[in-house]
Write a structure and sequence with these properties.
By secondary structure, the chain is mainly α. It contains eight helices and no strands. 76% of the residues lie in helices and 0% in strands.
Amino acid sequence: MKIFILSFVIIFLSYGKYVYVSTEWDKLNDKVGSLYQQGDYAGAIVIAKKTHQMAEREFGPDHSNVAASLNNLAEIYRAQGQYALARPLLKRALVINETAPGLDHLSVATSLNNLATLYFVKMQYSQARPLYKRALEIWINVLGSKHPDVATGLENLAELQRKTRQDKEAESLEKRAATIRAMQL
């Protein structure tokens, strides 16, 4: 499986009364990412839960930092195959991101992609497809059609098309992604 994931979302705040809290939140978020990369999922979960609690307490339940914390915790669960724990966290992160930054924000695309990836690994392809497509649309609209995140979206959608035996569509998507990747070299 070659699904690419834009999973760890770190939101930086550098203004007003949130500077100290944000700095502490950022440090915890960095620690989560580090533990995750090292494969220390148990340690990453402990810190991710603390990060989430801090975000809820300091920023409020509908803040983008809460969504990022939920996303990160969900991605750790997903990496462990604990899909039932990951899904509600990803859904809540998506709702927060659609409300806080707005429907066409990059954080929404990341949330859509991560939820789609969860459905993909559970072989729920019909649920994954519209999420991958919507994430791709946002990346194209916000970043332009030649951005590496667009290539990632194309690759994810191509992999889904291959799994559902839509090889011609998959090949077309893969070519578009390869063209974007080649421009990055």
